[in-house]
């Protein structure tokens, strides 16, 4: 049976204890636990939800880490985890096609948000009593709950226990939900928002009940409450605006931890760019997950933990082997070295490459670098390009046409530890799925390259199908699809690498310059959220509100499809890709063979 990575390795489907079982400490978690407002930005599957849930007490107290106790003591707040519920928007959208009663729509949406937040706060209070105040008296819980019943306008008959408070909130939400269908078509039914609990404000309510809780249980004034709103890209616009405004909150007892997609919504832009808007470094810290994922240490730790849990092996290099095309240690440039042999072989059949060597004062027959400058400026840069062209090319003559080898599989190119570490761009969900698949299909002490390759291709295909089948609304381009859009870019990159002309640094990223192209913008924005595209060189202290003039790369999981090395090189304007017909660089090696 094929495993669905989107559900099997999705922290949203796990309770905090389950998240803690396999959690690996990372620089992003180290930043998130600091005593400040924090915004986490990243694509789906990048680990945002895992980080948020790990801040909660059930996760921290069930985390099998030698430093867990120290970290718990260091965290200066109790985390209230609040997952975005799609009903927050649906309750607004229910009225979209019927009238313009914005007050009623927003009241219903706010009620839904308040209820979810209050339920999460009940969970947090319960967990504080369970894990940190284990000998608390029932009289104190009674006093707390009587206050909650009063402050949250619950029925006076509600039993003053936290579990019953939460049940009362759920019942009230269900009662309101049953009345909404009538209110959609009948305005006279909308007096339900006259109920006093519709006047509740989560911001003041949380502060009030937290103060009461701290007084009753004698919580130190230094201990704060952190509202952890997860997946805000799915939240209603009014809530996004409120929360980003709150990043300038002066409430000393309340923190905000927010997670969202890489591109912030337009409705937040005006707030963040205003004179009174929150500023990076002064009011909040930002965690851009794609920047931290460029570090190989974290994915390496994930692979190591999975390997140790399923085998007796601990040495990753011994178990998975290495890929000489990506090893960053000092390269040997002797005449008998593998790399020099590759150069010799390629120049003998690729006249454009031979021309390149001659123009750069390199002897094609004996291509040994003459100094360190040549090594750094030419040899190291072109290394994966040489390996890939030599692997695929049978012959490429001046005034001729490239002829390729009839390779069906590219095992040597997409296997080895270096490839496994980088192929998912550090996305934990896809990486965990890939490594588990490899380990489940391995019977020996060392996993063979063909097993790695087969599973990499399977995961790559799953990812491509996931992106292809992600719903997206396009307005103007009837024939345009996300798949066609990505194919155009991927084929251009492939032609740069494997086309007639040898490019020592082929283009492998693009800058979006198609202004007023709404459909293209929608594809990029949706792709950013799903991980199909990755922002490159985004400044840490600056939020990204639009894609114009931003640089992007394709996810590495697309690279096997387009026969690309896991390497970042030069960039080009997207408009140039979409107007290019390959006139200046003859059709690539696969045009006839694959089509």
Automatic annotation (TrEMBL):
Pfam families assigned to the protein according to its UniProt record, in alphabetical order = ORC-CDC6-like
Q: Which branch of life, at top level?
A: Bacteria
| Name of the featured protein | Uncharacterized protein
């Amino acid at each position: 049976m094929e495993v669905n990575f989107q559900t099997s390795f999705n922290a949203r489907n796990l309770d905090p204890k389950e998240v803690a079982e396999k959690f690996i400490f990372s620089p992003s978690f180290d930043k998130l636990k600091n005593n400040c407002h924090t915004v986490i930005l990243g694509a789906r599957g990048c680990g945002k939800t895992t980080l948020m849930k790990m801040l909660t007490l059930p996760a921290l107290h069930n985390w099998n880490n030698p430093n867990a106790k120290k970290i718990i003591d260091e965290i200066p707040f109790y985390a209230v985890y609040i997952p975005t519920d799609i009903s927050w928007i649906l309750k607004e959208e229910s009225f979209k096609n019927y009238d313009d009663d914005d007050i009623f729509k927003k009241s219903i949406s706010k009620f839904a948000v308040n209820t979810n937040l209050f339920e999460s706060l009940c969970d947090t209070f319960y967990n504080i009593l369970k894990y940190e105040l284990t000998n608390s008296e029932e009289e104190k819980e009674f006093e707390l709950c009587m206050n909650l019943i009063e402050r949250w306008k619950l029925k006076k008959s509600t039993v003053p226990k936290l579990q019953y408070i939460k049940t009362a909130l759920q019942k009230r939400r269900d009662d309101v939900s049953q009345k909404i269908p009538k209110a959609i078509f009948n305005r006279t039914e909308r007096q339900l928002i006259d109920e006093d609990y519709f006047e509740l404000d989560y911001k003041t309510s949380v502060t009030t009940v937290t103060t009461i809780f701290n007084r009753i249980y004698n919580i130190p004034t230094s201990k704060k409450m952190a509202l952890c709103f997860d997946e805000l890209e799915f939240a209603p616009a009014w809530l996004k605006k409120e929360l980003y405004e709150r990043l300038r909150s002066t409430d000393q007892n309340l923190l905000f931890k927010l997670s969202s997609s890489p591109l912030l919504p337009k409705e937040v832009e005006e707030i963040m760019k205003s004179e009174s808007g929150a500023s990076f470094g002064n009011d909040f810290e930002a965690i851009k997950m794609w920047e931290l994922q460029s570090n190989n240490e974290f994915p390496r730790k994930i692979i190591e933990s999975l390997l140790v849990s399923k085998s007796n092996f601990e040495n990753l290099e011994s178990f998975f082997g290495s890929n000489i095309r990506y090893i960053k240690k000092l390269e040997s440039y002797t005449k008998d070295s593998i790399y020099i042999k590759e150069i010799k072989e390629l120049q003998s059949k690729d006249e454009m490459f031979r021309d390149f060597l001659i123009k750069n004062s390199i002897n094609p027959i004996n291509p040994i670098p003459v100094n360190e400058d040549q090594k750094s400026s030419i040899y190291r840069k072109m290394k994966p390009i040489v390996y890939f062209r030599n692997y695929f090319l049978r012959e490429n003559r001046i005034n001729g046409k490239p002829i390729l080898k009839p390779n069906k599989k590219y095992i040597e190119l997409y296997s080895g530890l270096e490839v496994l570490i980088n192929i998912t761009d550090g996305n934990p969900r896809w990486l965990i799925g890939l490594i588990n698949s490899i380990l489940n299909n391995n019977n020996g002490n060392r996993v063979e390259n063909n097993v790695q390759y087969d599973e990499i291709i399977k995961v790559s295909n799953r990812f491509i199908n996931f992106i292809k089948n992600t719903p997206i609304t396009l307005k103007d381009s009837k024939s345009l699809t996300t798949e066609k859009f990505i194919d155009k870019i991927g084929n251009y990159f492939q032609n740069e690498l494997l086309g007639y002309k040898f490019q020592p640094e082929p283009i492998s990223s693009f800058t979006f310059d198609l202004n007023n192209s709404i459909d293209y913008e929608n594809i990029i924005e949706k792709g950013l959220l799903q991980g199909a595209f990755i922002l490159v060189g985004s400044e840490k202290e600056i939020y990204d509100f639009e894609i114009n003039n931003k640089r992007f790369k394709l996810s590495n999981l697309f690279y096997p499809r387009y026969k690309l090395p896991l390497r970042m090189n030069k960039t080009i304007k997207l408009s140039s890709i979409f107007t290019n017909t390959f006139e200046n660089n003859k059709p690539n090696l696969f045009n006839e063979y694959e089509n």
